[in-house]
Design a protein that fits this description.
Layout (H helix, E strand, L loop, with lengths): L1 H11 L5 H18 L5 H13 L6 E9 L7 E9 L2 E9 L2 H9 L3 E11 L6 E10 L4 E8 L2 H18 L15
Antiparallel strand pairs: 1-2, 2-3, 4-5, 5-6
Helix pairs in contact: 2-3, 4-5
């Protein structure tokens, strides 16, 4: 686990939280067992990207708009556009911040357990990478990751990554949600 984390940090500036290192090590072990060889740094990054950044998606991020409530509640409102099943859906919610608002907008039974982020690269055009750990109603915990030049967008992508992984692994049922369409 430490060797994988070291290579990803050294070569790709990915500083994985410890529990994510443990979770990702299962993906690495399965790939190493399938190939029967030690994986290169590039192969590790490709595995991470395929599992967390570019995985098959139930919800595909399209855009978001945030606004601060004017009712004195000091909360954020989100208008989130995602694609689900080939249809564009517009989700609306209000929460204590962008991530809380997004969790409420998605409407599935999960909570955010932890959040970490850092930059990859240097300067004002560096990308942010965000790691989100969620727990489902069945107490299954898993991570998602998002990378973007905008730190809010990276956070929202990480939430969707975790949700999409939970759906793919059978821990959340996105089919139970009614289709919500609109522009």
């Amino acid at each position: 686990k430490g060797g994988v984390a070291y290579l990803l940090e050294r070569d790709y500036q990915l500083v994985l939280p410890r529990r994510l290192q443990i979770e990702f090590s299962q993906v690495v072990q399965a790939a190493a067992d399938a190939t029967g060889k030690e994986l290169t740094s590039q192969e590790l990054f490709d595995l991470f990207s395929a599992e967390y950044l570019r995985a098959q998606q139930t919800f595909t991020y399209r855009s978001h708009q945030l606004s601060t409530s004017t009712d004195g509640a000091d909360s954020e409102r989100i208008v989130l556009q995602v694609e689900r099943g080939g249809h564009l859906e517009t989700l609306h919610a209000q929460g204590s911040g962008p991530i809380d608002a997004m969790v409420k907008a998605i409407g599935l039974p999960f909570d955010v357990l932890s959040y970490e982020e850092h930059s990859t690269g240097h300067g004002s055009d560096a990308k942010a990478i965000c790691y989100i750990e969620i727990t489902t109603a069945s107490r299954r915990t898993l991570f998602g990751a998002g990378a973007h030049h905008n730190i809010i967008t990276a956070s929202l992508l990480a939430v969707l990554s975790a949700v999409n992984r939970a759906v793919r692994l059978g821990y959340l049922n996105a089919q139970a949600l009614p289709a919500r369409t609109g522009t």
